[in-house]
């Protein structure tokens, strides 16, 4: 039972840590301080953790990674949009 509570705490804390970044990007529309490579790698990694959680049948892992994947994908998509726009404006 203690393992469940540790996994639950880890899931809540790591997932909640992305909320401020997502809100900041949505509010300001600015992504220039965000690494495209890091967010791409992170998003793929979270997707892998989601699949692994599904294989294990671990609901805390599934729910946390599903929410984190949604937030990270949102930030990544905005970063990609801004990177494309910046490259087009530089021409």
From TrEMBL:
Its main location: membrane. It is found in: Membrane. It is a multi-pass membrane protein. Keywords: Membrane, Transmembrane, Transmembrane helix. The chain crosses the membrane at residues 6-26, 33-52, 58-78. This is SemiSWEET transporter. It comes from Parvularcula lutaonensis.
